[in-house]
Design a protein that fits this description.
By secondary structure, the protein is mainly alpha-helical. The chain folds into three domains: about 70 residues, no CATH class; about 50 residues, no CATH class; about 110 residues, 2-Layer Sandwich (Double Stranded RNA Binding Domain), CATH 3.30.160.800. The chain contains ten helices and four strands; from the N terminus they run H-H-H-H-H-H-H-E-H-H-E-E-E-H. The protein has a two-stranded parallel ribbon with strand order 1-2. Strands 3-4 form a two-stranded antiparallel sheet. The chain starts with a helix and ends with a helix. The relative contact order is 0.08.
Length: about 280
C-alpha cells in the first residue's frame, strides 16, 4: 500500500475514476505473483468473484508494469537499480541528477562494504530521507548553487549536472578521455594490469552468474564488457557536458598526449563531419 501511495504521489497509477479505498481493497485481494509475473496459463490475479472495472484494470496494469520491472532489476548492482527506478519515476533534470549522485554514493558504499545486502542499502536511503544521515552530494545543483552573470565557474562535468551556462568550455575532449573502441587507450589504465579492470570485471562476472549464463564469460570477454561499459559511461558524461551550454559551446583538446599523437573524441568528430553544428 505504501508503494502504491508513493507512486500515486508521483503521478504513476493515479486515475481520477478510481476510488483509492476500492483500489486498496483490490490490492489486498490480489495474488501478487500472478499480477507481477503472469504465467502462460494466464491465471487471473484476482478471485473470480471480484469484478474489476476498466479504469481499475488500467491502474493495476500500470502499477504491476513498474513493480515487476523493478523486481527484475533488483539483481543488478545498486547504482543501476537506483537509476532504473529513477528514470521511471523522475522527470526533472535536477531530480535525475540527485538520483545519479545517490546511485554513485551507494555504489561506493557497497564496494567498501561488500557484506551489505539490498535491504541494508535501502535503509541507508531511508536514513538520508529522514535526515538521520547526512548526504554529501557531488552535484552543485544540490548545494543550492546558481550560475551568476560575469562569473566564471570551474567545475567537473559530474558536478555540473542539472545546471546551465550561456557559454561552456570543455577541455581535454580527446580519444583518451572519451574512448570509442575496446582496443584503444584508456585514461588512468595501469600498465601492470594488462588492460584489466578487476572491480568492473568482477561485477560483470557476478551479473553473468545472476543471469545464469552458460558458459561464463572468459577473461577476454570480461575485459571487452568492462571497457564497453566504461565507453558508454564516458559518452553519457560527455553528453552531460555538451548540454550544459545554452548558447555557446567551445571544445578543445591537445594534439599530442604524453609524446604521442592525439585526436579529438570520435563522438565530436562524427557530429562535425555530419555538419550538425
Amino acid at each position: 500500500m505504501d508503494l502504491r501511495k508513493a507512486l500515486v504521489d508521483m503521478g504513476i497509477g493515479s486515475n481520477r475514476h478510481v476510488i483509492e479505498n476500492r483500489m486498496n481493497t483490490l490490492l489486498r485481494s490480489v495474488h501478487p505473483e500472478r499480477l507481477l509475473f503472469p504465467s502462460p496459463a494466464a491465471e487471473p490475479p484476482l478471485p473470480a468473484n471480484v469484478h474489476v472495472g476498466e479504469h481499475e484494470q488500467q491502474a493495476l496494469q500500470e502499477l504491476s508494469m513498474h513493480v515487476s520491472k523493478w523486481l527484475r532489476a533488483s539483481v543488478l548492482p545498486i547504482d543501476q537499480l537506483v537509476l532504473t527506478v529513477g528514470q521511471d519515476v523522475l522527470a526533472s533534470e535536477s531530480d535525475l541528477a540527485i538520483a545519479h549522485s545517490l546511485a554513485l554514493s551507494l555504489r561506493r558504499l557497497a564496494a567498501v562494504n561488500p557484506q551489505m545486502q539490498l535491504a541494508d542499502l535501502a535503509r541507508e536511503l531511508d536514513d538520508i530521507a529522514d535526515n538521520r544521515q547526512k548526504y554529501l552530494s557531488n552535484a552543485l545543483i544540490e548545494s543550492g548553487f546558481e550560475p551568476m552573470q560575469g562569473v566564471v565557474t570551474v567545475t567537473t562535468m559530474h558536478k555540473a549536472k542539472g545546471l546551465e551556462w550561456d557559454r561552456v568550455y570543455l577541455t581535454g575532449v580527446d580519444q583518451v578521455e572519451f574512448p570509442h573502441e575496446v582496443g584503444g587507450q584508456f585514461r588512468g589504465e595501469q600498465w601492470f594490469l594488462g588492460g584489466h579492470d578487476p572491480a568492473t570485471e568482477a561485477r560483470k562476472q557476478l551479473e553473468a552468474l545472476a543471469r545464469g549464463d552458460d558458459p561464463l564469460p572468459g577473461d577476454i570477454e570480461l575485459i571487452r564488457r568492462a571497457r564497453l561499459e566504461y565507453i558508454a559511461e564516458r559518452l553519457r558524461l560527455l553528453y552531460v557536458g555538451i548540454t550544459r551550454a545554452k548558447r555557446e559551446l567551445v571544445i578543445s583538446y591537445s594534439r599530442e598526449r604524453h609524446g604521442h599523437e592525439n585526436e579529438l573524441a570520435l563522438a565530436v568528430r562524427a557530429v562535425l563531419s555530419a555538419g550538425l553544428v
